[in-house]
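User: For a reading group we're discussing how well predicted structures match intuition. Take tRNA-specific adenosine deaminase. Before you show the prediction, I'll give you the sequence so everyone sees exactly what went in.
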Amino acid sequence: MTLEYNQDEYFMKEAIEEAKKAEELDEVPIGAVIVSQGKVLARAHNLRESEQNAVAHAELLAIDQACRKVGSWRLENTTLYVTLEPCPMCSGAIILSRVKRVVYGATDPKGGCAGTLMNLLQDERFNHQSLVTKGVLETECGQLLSDFFRKIRDRKKLERQVKRENEVK
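Assistant: Thanks. Here is the predicted 3D structure of tRNA-specific adenosine deaminase, as structure tokens, for the group to look at:
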């Protein structure tokens, strides 16, 4: 295993910890960390439901935090680790903030724009491209999401059953 891969796993585990914080809030468990020179510069997790804000994605919150910390909108020479492949909105913010490299865990077949539906991060028509590494701790990242959505489906099923039982009474 290369040093870079070990480092990728280490920081992806940090992103997973952020995703678990989101899950505790009943948010979709997605976490992100931005790293510069081997140190975490920013960390965030989804807060879309808590804040009722469509742009409160983990990546955008981490980018905002990192920009404030460095005092610049340019995040050159940083790596963003995220548990789920970035969506179009987050991919746009990654490009615009000049993140050098993106490492993600699980692919997103419904919204992934780092290689699945399209690859905005490496589209040469933009004035910036990011290096992309996919599938780091993919199983663990995907399992978090699968378990979360299974719990939601089970909860809704139980709510429907209770409603039907109450209607019968």
